[in-house]
Each structure stands twice: as C-alpha cells, then as structure tokens.
C-alpha cells in the first residue's frame, strides 16, 4: 500500500513548513528581516494506465490515464523581499533603506556580505561597523571629537568636529543590487552572501534609478505579517494532522486485510 509512504512525505513537508513559519515568527522583531515561505512540488507518478492507450480492437483510446502520485517534497524556501516598516530611533548612525538595495559589509576574510540591517556603530578606530564589528564597505572613518554626523538620502556622510563650524565630508554609503535577490544565501547575523543564482553584486548609489534612498535615524523593521504567519501555521498543522490520519487509515485497512481468513 503506497498510502503509508505518500502520507509520510506529506508529514515531512509540513514539518518543513512549520519550521519556516516558526523562523518567521521568531524574527518578527529582527531588523531588516525578510520572511520566507516554503515551496513544494509533487513527486513522480506511477502510471497504471497510459492516456491514449487502446481500449478496443476498433481503435478507441483511453481519454485519460490512471496515474498515482508518490507524494510531495520541498522545492525550496522563497524569501519575500517586500519593504519593512520604518522605525524611528533618533540615532544618527541608524540607517534604513527605503526601496531596493543592500548595504555592503566587509567580512574578516575579505569577502563581501550584504545586509538590510543599518544599525551601525563606530569602533575604537573610528570605523563605521555593524553590530558584529564588520566594517562597512567602502570604509567610513569618523574623526575624534565628532559632535554630529549627518547622512543624506543619497548616502553622503558629513561630520561636524568640535570647534570647527564647517562640516567635513567623510565619504559615501553605497549599496549593491542583484538581478535575483532570491538567490542570496542567508548566513545569519542579518547577513546575506552572493551566489551563482543571485548573480554578482551591482554597485549603486542611494537614489539611483531603481535603487532606494537612505533614511538616517531610522531602521527597517521585519516584514513578517504575524496574522498571516499564524494563519499559515494553523493550515500547516491541519495538513499534518490529515496526513497522520491517512497513515492511521492505511494501517487499519492493512490490519483488516490481514484478518481475512
């Protein structure tokens, strides 16, 4: 009886679905987090009767076949790159991207990573860094005795140094875009890495056509819709229960067949 194996694949698929939903809910307050959904596809089919097979010597043919599917499998997890809400923080080093694009971060091994989390800090050397201490690329160095930092929507960074009435331009916060954002690989710490599927990063400046602008003193909130996630969780739970019921029913049918004398 195939029902046991088929229903088991359904239970495994719904377990993956619940795992993805749980991660979304857990990151409902994570800065710049993008929710995901699990995508599924059916497995191969066993053909018991082919469509178009002859059913008589006169040449009549079967209009439909008799195909039994062998279950379901996870095709992938799709990241939903919709805009998160803006959260005002009044911290001059907090930056949010309003639109498309990613901040570029330089990893300790020299590789580039990308993030929507603009909760930046200044380290002991005056460099603009992420919460994990990774340097923003290209580097921005803040002078000592800086009393105020201003960052324009186009990413230009200027600083007012103590006793100097004229601002000093420190550089520019740039961005990167991708042909296929869904192909980026999440590595944790709010960081993403480019892959063959995403394509190479395309350098851009904030405000360029098709690129978002920088909002100083704001952070981008998670785009998780809690109500939708709870609804999806209930749906996944019910689907899991129905697959479990299918296994129970198949077991009862096999038990009944075994008792026939």
Automatic annotation (TrEMBL):
Protein localization: Bacterial flagellum basal body
Record domain Flagellar basal-body/hook protein C-terminal: where: 215-260
Keywords: Bacterial flagellum, Cell projection, Cilium, Flagellum
Transmembrane feature ranges: none
GO cellular component: bacterial-type flagellum basal body, distal rod
Keyword Ribosomal protein: no
InterPro entries attached to this UniProt entry: Flag_bb_rod_N, Flagellar_basal_body_rod_CS, Flagellar_FlgE/F/G, Flg_bb/hook_C_dom, FlgE/F/G-like, FlgG_G_neg, LlgE_F_G-like_D1
Record domain Flagellar basal body rod protein N-terminal: where: 6-34
Any one biological process term the GO annotation gives: bacterial-type flagellum-dependent swarming motility
Primary localization: other
Flagellar hook protein FlgE/F/G-like D1 domain residues: 96-159
Subunit structure: The basal body constitutes a major portion of the flagellar organelle and consists of four rings (L,P,S, and M) mounted on a central rod. The rod consists of about 26 subunits of FlgG in the distal portion, and FlgB, FlgC and FlgF are thought to build up the proximal portion of the rod with about 6 subunits each.
Entry similarity comment: Belongs to the flagella basal body rod proteins family.
Protein name: Flagellar basal-body rod protein FlgG
Species whose genome carries this gene: Tranquillimonas alkanivorans
Lineage, opening ranks: Bacteria, Pseudomonadati, Pseudomonadota, Alphaproteobacteria, Rhodobacterales
């Amino acid at each position: 009886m195939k029902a046991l194996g088929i229903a088991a694949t359904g239970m495994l698929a719904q377990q993956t679905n619940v795992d993805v939903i749980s991660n979304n809910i857990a990151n409902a307050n994570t800065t710049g987090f993008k929710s995901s959904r699990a995508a599924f596809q059916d497995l191969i089919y066993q053909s018991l009767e082919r469509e178009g097979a002859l059913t008589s010597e006169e040449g009549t043919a079967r209009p439909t076949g008799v195909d039994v599917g062998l279950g379901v499998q996870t095709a992938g997890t799709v990241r939903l790159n919709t805009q998160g809400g803006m959260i005002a923080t009044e911290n001059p080093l907090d930056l949010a991207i309003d639109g498309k694009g990613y901040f570029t971060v330089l990893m300790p091994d020299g590789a580039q990573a990308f993030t929507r989390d603009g909760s930046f800090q200044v380290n002991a050397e005056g460099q603009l860094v992420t919460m994990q201490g990774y340097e923003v690329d290209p580097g921005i160095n803040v002078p000592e005795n800086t009393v105020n930092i201003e960052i324009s929507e186009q990413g230009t960074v200027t600083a007012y140094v103590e006793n100097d009435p004229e601002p000093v331009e420190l550089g520019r916060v740039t961005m990167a875009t991708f042909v296929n954002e869904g192909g980026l690989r999440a590595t944790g710490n709010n960081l993403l890495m480019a892959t063959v599927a995403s394509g190479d990063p395309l350098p851009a400046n904030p405000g360029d056509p098709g690129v978002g602008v920088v909002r100083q003193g704001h952070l981008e909130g998670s785009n998780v819709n809690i109500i939708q996630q709870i609804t999806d969780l209930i749906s996944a739970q019910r689907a899991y229960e129905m697959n479990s019921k299918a296994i129970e029913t198949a077991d009862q049918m096999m038990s009944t067949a075994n008792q026939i004398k």
